[in-house]
Design goal:
By secondary structure, this protein is an alpha/beta fold. Helix content is 43%, strand content 13%. A hairpin with a 2-residue loop joins β6 and β7. α1 packs across α3 and α6 packs across α13.
């Protein structure tokens, strides 16, 4: 089997299309046995996870069957067997659908891995084992009873419940020094939805989107899916290179810049105050929006964090996007956008077209926990735990690798950016074992040799950190 000439943009789609064609054209007859996922992955030179995903997808479609302790076989009754040519065309919708980009397809397959309980990359996710389950359960029960008794489980404001918007506005004003009211807040299902809404509201005819050279790929996919050209701005040891941004502004019309200034993703660098002020001055002078993704503001360990861009002078064009996923767990799906009222109104108009409104129960639960001080107490408790895990992870890298690797201890967040260039020394390295480290080449589409890795310590106990670092040492030896 060869994949070079197969249709499709990714290895996943190429293998899927090749197997489907081999079955429909008779090269793989009904009942024939397929190679195991490991042996086929080695034969094709692809990741075993890719083969597993394709097998599972074809089994769900009816092309394959898995027999316990026997293997994977071509189904005796194929999904299109017995259909006429005209009927096959009726069930084939490929000519009526718009193809996803390669990046979107890769992100989707990664999401399926998580759903199928296959270990996925942990590059700074929180530890769901730290969630106060009993407190959450009690609050959910109380809120559900109250909503039911007062007939408040109908349709509501697409911007989110006024209670949670007021709680978020109070938090942003008190903790982050932002002059913010409830009318300037829109509740969303996580920061990714906030980023996507921003990409829908901004106009690609007004210019390109500037992103950091190494960046959060789902954000880039959102901008590209809505027609934006993406320009890359260089990073250095202090984060976004303002001088390079000025060069880009001199050569291109820019609609917005997407930044992660609190802890740059993925390098963890905190953008210093002078660069923040310069960025805002440029935004005002060139009239472009600043999309500030403040994805883990709550977790800072050394000193009080630098205030967000949205709290500083000349912040009129800033759209502040945040998430509660790092506080509790990604599964709660709660985030927010804070911006001027016109932008919030446009966001609500887009939400009407997507899902009408968010989850009223979860929104009121979070608002209740914020008002009672439970969220603040939980953050203080977990912040100490994550700081201890950060320090322990740093000690383990020094113990295991010595001076073969180097890193700057991050002031916050749940990941460490580790320089492995001495170990790699220009050799080809496409993946790492385990799920707690990702190579720097993952965060860019440039064909470059990896020089760093992002190690996520947040979701790991100290024992798990040791195991992961030692496994990493074996792979890089």
């Amino acid at each position: 089997m060869w994949l070079e000439d197969s249709p499709g943009k990714t290895l996943h789609s190429k293998l899927l299309n090749t197997l489907t064609a081999d079955i429909t054209e008779g090269r793989l007859p009904p009942g024939s046995m397929l190679p195991g996922s490991r042996s086929l992955a080695e034969q094709l030179g692809v990741n075993r996870k890719t083969v597993q995903q394709v097998y599972e997808e074809l089994e769900a479609q009816g092309w394959l069957v898995t027999r316990q302790r026997s293997g994977t076989f071509v189904s005796e009754t194929l999904p299109e067997q017995g259909l006429s040519t005209s009927d096959r065309q009726l069930v084939n919708s490929s000519d009526r659908t718009r193809s996803a980009s390669e990046l979107v397809e890769i992100l989707y397959q990664d999401a399926l891995c998580s759903y199928n309980a296959i270990p996925v990359t942990n590059d700074g996710t929180p530890d769901s084992r730290l969630i106060p389950y009993e407190l959450l359960a009690r609050t959910y029960r109380r809120v559900c009873i109250d909503l039911s008794r007062n007939s408040r489980l109908g349709y509501g404001d697409p911007k989110g419940s006024v209670e949670l918007r007021q709680s978020v506005a109070k938090m942003l004003s008190g903790d982050r020094f932002m002059n913010c009211s409830a009318e300037q807040v829109c509740i969303v299902r996580g920061s990714q939805m906030g980023i996507y809404l921003a990409s829908r509201i901004l106009d690609p005819r007004k210019g390109a989107i500037v992103m950091e050279d190494l960046c959060y790929l789902p954000a880039r996919a959102a901008f590209e899916s809505n027609g934006f050209k993406v320009l890359k701005c260089r990073l250095d040891e202090q984060g976004l290179d303002i001088d390079h941004l000025r060069e880009l502004l001199a050569e291109h019309t820019v609609a917005a810049i997407y930044v992660t200034p609190h802890h740059q993703y993925p390098t963890t660098v905190c953008l210093p105050m002078d660069r923040r002020l310069a960025l805002l001055e440029l935004s005002k002078a060139h009239r472009f929006a600043v999309l500030e993704d403040d994805y883990d503001h709550e977790f800072h360990y050394e000193t009080n964090p630098i205030p967000p861009l949205a709290s500083l002078p000349n912040a009129e064009n800033v759209v502040h996007i945040g998430s509660m996923s790092k506080v509790f767990a990604p599964g709660l799906r709660l985030g927010y956008i804070a911006a001027d009222t016109r932008f919030i109104e446009r966001a609500a108009q887009e939400i009407i077209l997507i899902d009408r409104q968010g989850n009223a129960v979860t929104e009121l639960v979070l608002s209740s926990l914020m008002e009672s001080g439970e969220v603040r107490r939980h953050i203080r408790k977990t912040r100490k735990e994550y700081e201890a895990r950060r320090n322990f992870a740093a000690q383990e890298f020094v113990r295991v690798f010595g001076d073969q690797v180097s890193f700057t201890l991050p002031t916050g967040g749940m990941a460490i950016w580790v320089d492995i260039s001495k170990l790699v020394q220009g050799r080809k390295l496409e993946s790492l074992p385990g799920k707690d480290s990702t190579l720097s080449s993952v965060y860019t589409d440039d064909q470059v040799v990896p020089t760093h890795l992002r190690f996520g310590f947040g979701a790991l106990s100290k024992t798990e950190i040791t195991q992961s670092v030692e496994q990493l040492a074996e792979a890089l030896a």
